[in-house]
Amino acid sequence: MKKVLATLLTCGLLIGSLAGCGEQASVAPAPETKTEATVTESTEAAPEATSSDRPADHVTLKMYLEGSNVTDDTAVLEKVNEYLDEKLNVTLEPIWGTWGDFDQGAVLSLQGGEDVDIYFTCSWTLNEYNQFARDGYYVRLDDPDNNLIEKYGQDILNLLPEVLIKGSTIEGANGYGIYAVNGYKDIACQNCWDVNVDLLKKYGYTVEDIEKADYFTFGDILAKVKEGEGENFYPLLIEGAVLERMVDNSIIVAGDSGSNNLLSYYINPKKTSDEGAYGNVILNKFATDEFKKFCEKTREYYLAGYIDPDMANPDKANDVRANKQLTGQYLIGTQSYSLGYEIQASTERGFEVAMVPTTPAYVDTTSSQGAMMAISTASKNPDRAMMFLNLLNTDPYLFTLLDFGVEGIHYNLNEIGEVEFTAERDNYMPWTNGLGNVTLLPPQKGQGADFWEGFKAYYGNADEIPILGYTFNPENVENEFAALANVAAEYVLPLCTGAVDPDEKIPEFLAKLEANGMQKVVDEANSQLQSFLASQGK
Amino acid sequence: MGATIAKTVGGDSSAKSNNKRKNRKKTLMLLTMVAPTALWLILLRYIPMAGIVIAFKKYKVYTPKPSLVNNIINSKWVGLGNFKFLFTSSDTLLVLRNTVGYNLLWIALGVIISVSFAIMINEITSKFVAKTYQTMMFFPFFLSWVVVSYFVMALLDPTSGLIVKAQIARGLTPTEWYHDYKPWPVILTICNLWKNMGYQTILYLAAITGIDKSQYEAAAIDGASKWQQIWYVTIPNLRNMVIILLIMDIGKIFNSDFGLFYSVPQNSGTIFRTTQVLDTYVYRALMNSQNIGMSTAASLFQNAVGFVLIMITNTMIRKIDPDSALF
Amino acid sequence: MSTNNKKQKRNRLQSVSIPTEIIFHLIIGGFAIACILPFIFVIIISFSSEESIRMIGYSFKPIKWSTDAYKFVFEMGGQLWRSYFNSFFVSVVGTLISITMCVMYAYALFRRDFKYRKFFTFFAFFTMLFGGGLAPTYMVCKQMLSLSDNYAALIVPALVNPFFIIIMRTFLQTSVPEELIEAAAIDGSGEYNTLFKIIIPISKPGIATVSLLTIINYWNDWFLAMLYVREPNLYPLQYLLMKMQNQVDFLIKNSSVIGVEASKLLQDLPSTSLRMSLVVFIVVPIACAYPFFQRYIISGLTIGSVKG
């Protein structure tokens, strides 16, 4: 039996590697094109000229996008490729990934080394930017040996805010550098109380009352509304983890996102560019007094019937919350903000909505990595891919075409230059924020002609937190991390929604964190943070 | 058996060599029958199996020439490092207990209930009614666990659940179903039986239908009552199927139906004590890290244990009853 | 034995007593009803109005009924019927090929005089436990076998199921007497002849069962489509549903990181009642196909006698 097994395994490996060889053989022409491309570069020695000059050989670029809803792209691609052919001698083949399918598809495609040139990546999809850059999936764009940004990406550097470049510069497989081009979208983070103004007014309060109060003094207002609206009305509509961050001014540490955020950094809620109460350190936030105080208050609100028990149900909470927001079954909610959202929300929901921010807008590593485009190391034409990304992020014609479609088919412009979509748009809806520099777009109907000026002012002026650019690398504590993710899944949400008694559960939780190596993870994170700060000269 | 035929057919040497040729031809014909499936297995199962080595490596991209094969070959060996996370948690024992416990319980219940169901359906006089029951029993098979979880939720929801409302109406304190771990072994067992009984019953039912009817006739002539016929004819004939399904189940003793343990309890943390199994543990541990080495290691561990258990069970069965063994 | 008894035997081949049968009806009937309750629940949700779902969630008694979901499904028109066709085509063709391969393989394993019987049993069984994982399988299918954006991609990866092979072999063991094979061999029947002319006709219950399970596997499958198909013309019905479900789940789960855009995106996605009406569209045809197989699985006395 053993022999059979061994033979089989060897056979499998052998055939597998043979297949691999076949694969290599079939891609043999690749290096040639590559050298050709470099030859083109060296002959046209002037570095400024290269990005605008049309290279001699034709290449096809495949780009894997997230969140698209595209059923017919023929009209758009015809125009796009006509333009790209003329500019870069490139044919673009987009792969329209959708929400939910993109994660699995892109990860498999990357792991298998498929010949896709450009991938959407960010801090929250499965092909997470920091990890995949570390594992060698993405080309370092500012590689000293082959600095693609310097050669072909100067225009991007000029257009993007500096904070974005800071956020994307990380320690990857090929040293400390940039592994993806950031999209310029709502890059700042700002959490708000989402207030149902109509209901608030009904009980004689104003938005100022909310602004003056804080989470710990909401009690009276909540009590009054609860009493008036009845047993089945829950005035506080919260997302547990977000609420905790809003109340305690803790933020997600990049590299730790998703795993119920074991690590926390505390920001300064008054001036986010300054250090917070604990200084530049990473903490186990569950052990802080803030956390305890927060949980106790939340428990009090939960028992008083201010918080819907469904909010403690991880699978259902978000769904229920989205529905209750839409139908106005809440008084105060938690919401991450983007510019102009109160207007959008008021129209969507049909009642007046106000957003009361708890901090100024700030940029952290996670928010700056919200949408990016990376070039795969498996790409055979990284140079051309960079040229393309440069053009896409700087050329309003191309970007608008790719995002909004063809003028006259998918949209029309009105007198003041706003975009009005036609019915055809339903068949061609890429995800705007996933494409790149959205400030190149014309404003949409209702946004007003000067929309993007306001946008750039709001986001371009957002403060950066002191540790912007720091990303936690869990490689040395992988086993602890795996166990701790389960511990966090067990305790965090029930505690943050008040569903369980903090006096009983917090000590239990902390003991379990300790038993699974929390201290080791925190120490590791801090030592990484210290060396990061040292390298930044802070 | 070839030899038996040879004996019965005749003794002289020409017949023997004739038989040999026949045997060779027979083997060849049978080989052509297994060929398509065998080829499929080689292509779609055995070649990818080389990927198992990822479990022992720290998978990184080989940047000069990225491809799955190159990446695997050039990644660093880490020995059993990828397996560690399965055993270092303070919950490891609990998780293993849940996984194995539920499986053992459900294997036992499954055999007893589905064999009884199959026999009962077979005894129902009206074949039309029997078929209707059978059809209905198959419906759970088409509903995903997510859909089932909506249904369970409609019963147990803390604010609008039917059972919770009934509890309140009777003046009882409503159970916090999604925060109370105690009722979950029962709920999960009910859900599991509900979903799988139709499937298992049909296998036994078909096996019963396939039983040579002359056996019943002979038993009836000997004066056996219906119950005796079931006991002495039906059940022995089902033995093969029971044993085979048992062996298969034992091989999956470290695996669980992920959707059942993840979706139906609504992913609720407070009840992990009775709902956390190896599959959900691994999922939650690796959900955000896409660590292909660790996930391969986890499934290799599950399957290797299953493999060893199957080999042991099979050897034991072969000693007692060679006919029913898997191989 | 009395004449009366004999008569009854001819009619019912001896049955359990009437009271016992009533108990059987209660148990099996009760369980059967429990089995379709959630499906009825699905139908109720599919007829609930969207406001009702928003206000009170999924409920047995929605505030308001509505047929909007079905209207919307029919308005999908082309894609819906196209996907129906794809599901149907893939299920039928896949099952036909799959069952043929399965029966042939299982038959060889069933033959005790097959020289490599043990080897091939193990060869199939081993793959039930060990696999190379998703990424290697994906690469082999896509790059070596070009299973990408074609019907083959939806059929080939699910052709062989070792579990079904072993079940099939077990069926053959219970329903085919050894002497039959010997007799056929003496008659000079070739292996293929024996299999198709003698074995298959008497193994209908087993074949029907495995066919049913196979066709359901194909019908329920969406994972292969997710991996290998990007062309909407090739989407099977289940994938159409899963895609909607996945989109909604993903956006809801990541709403806080995608930001306020998520709420807008979510509004444009198909409603829950629409998804549930698709479940109905998926379940009903396969439930209708069920009796076709059932004929062979519950057929009482008509088959089985092999003495001739």
Describe this structure in words.
The complex is a heterotrimer of chains A (538), B (327) and C (308). With 538 residues, chain A is an alpha+beta fold. Chain A has two domains: 36-182 and 369-464, D-Maltodextrin-Binding Protein, domain 2, CATH 3.40.190.10; 186-364 and 465-538, Periplasmic binding protein-like II (D-Maltodextrin-Binding Protein, domain 2), CATH 3.40.190.10. In chain A, strand 5 and strand 6 form a beta hairpin. Chain B has one domain: Orthogonal Bundle (MetI-like fold), CATH 1.10.3720.10. Chain B has helices at residues 2-9, 13-49, 68-74, 92-123, 127-137, 145-156, 162-169, 184-209, 213-221, 226-251, 258-262, 272-275, 278-286, 292-320, and strands at 57-58, 76-77. In chain B, helix 10 (226-251) runs antiparallel to helix 14. Chain B is flat, with a radius of gyration of 26 Å. The two termini of chain B are 17 Å apart. Chain C contains 17 helices and no strands. At the B-C interface, helix 1, helix 2, helix 4, helix 5 and helix 6 of B face helix 2, helix 5, helix 6, helix 7 and helix 9 of C.
SS content category of chain B: mainly alpha
Q: Detail the poorly predicted runs of chain A.
A: 1-51
Mean pLDDT of chain A: 87
Q: Quickly count the helices of chain A.
A: 23
Beta percentage of chain A is 5-15%
Across the major sheet of chain B, the strand order is 1-2
Overall geometry of chain B comes to: flat
Order of helices and strands of chain B: HHEHEHHHHHHHHHHH
- How many domains in all of chain A? 2
Draw up the topology in text:
The complex is a heterotrimer of chains A (538), B (327) and C (308).
Chain A: H1 2-26, H2 29-43, H3 47-50, E1 59-65, E2 69-70, H4 74-88, E3 90-96, H5 101-111, E4 118-121, H6 129-134, E5 142-143, E6 146-147, H7 148-152, H8 154-159, H9 162-168, E7 169-172, E8 175-178, E9 181-182, E10 191-196, H10 197-202, H11 207-212, H12 219-229, E11 236-237, H13 240-248, E12 250-252, E13 263-266, E14 283-284, H14 289-303, H15 317-327, E15 332-336, H16 341-349, E16 353-357, E17 362-363, H17 365-368, E18 372-375, H18 382-394, H19 396-404, E19 411-413, E20 419-421, E21 428-429, H20 451-460, E22 463-464, H21 478-497, H22 502-515, H23 518-536
Parallel strand pairs in A: 1-3, 1-4, 11-15, 17-22
Antiparallel strand pairs in A: 2-21, 4-18, 5-6, 7-8, 9-18, 10-15, 10-16, 12-13, 13-14, 19-20
Chain B: H1 2-9, H2 13-49, E1 57-58, H3 68-74, E2 76-77, H4 92-123, H5 127-137, H6 145-156, H7 162-169, H8 184-209, H9 213-221, H10 226-251, H11 258-262, H12 272-275, H13 278-286, H14 292-320
Antiparallel strand pairs in B: 1-2
Helix pairs in contact in B: 4-8, 4-10, 8-10, 9-10, 10-14
Chain C: H1 3-12, H2 18-46, H3 50-56, H4 68-76, H5 78-110, H6 117-129, H7 134-144, H8 151-155, H9 162-175, H10 178-186, H11 191-202, H12 204-220, H13 223-228, H14 237-253, H15 255-258, H16 261-268, H17 272-297
Helix pairs in contact in C: 2-17, 4-17, 5-9, 5-12, 6-9, 9-12, 12-17, 14-16, 14-17
